Amino acid sequence: MSQKNLVVDAAQSVTEAIQSRRCVRAFSSEPVNQKTILDIIATASRAPSGGNLQPWRVYALAGDARNELVDCVAEKMKETPFGDGPEYEIYPAELTEPYVSRRGEVAKEMYDLIGIARDDGEARMKQMGRNFSFFDAPVGLILTIDKQMGPPQFVDLGLFLGNLMLLAREQGLHTCPQEAWSLWSKTIREVVGIPENELIFCGLALGHPEPEARINTLSTPRALVDDFAAFRGF
Asked: What does pTM read for this prediction?
């Protein structure tokens, strides 16, 4: 099977890191050492933030700590498959075009790629549930932000998250950012030991991609620059 959409070699430039980044949804069991994770997080913290607030916090989980969270959620999903309830609205309730179509198209492409029919709710739920094993990645990061923070600080958190993903590519690793983890905020707090004043924003699966997984060939399209950018005075 061709892996033309998945570059596994380490990125040699920022541009290459951006162009080769994918949301990987199937990871191998190959471990990632703590120093690599520490270096990625430390460098990512050079992300800019208004007033230098540096509002992000990150909890890195591997080994028994990762497995404890994954196993706990797996057990709870038997009774409450939709989690503890989100701490924020992941998508606007009244999402408009072109955003509705973009969201629908990527979902269709992903499920078609792995052979899950539109009306196969059980299979779709099972695939959704794979979020909560970090797609088998050996490392899971949980990103939080203090609840007193507002939209500008969420942008800062996003810049930090972007740095994490690009730096992972520099190490020959891949990632998948997962807002789905916000559905299990209460459980994450209990298992990981996160204080109540921190909002669970997302998880980040990190590791080496499974080379034969068809789902890892998914490459999402991007709008043309003219669709979202305006140039004046050039």
From this structure: 0.94
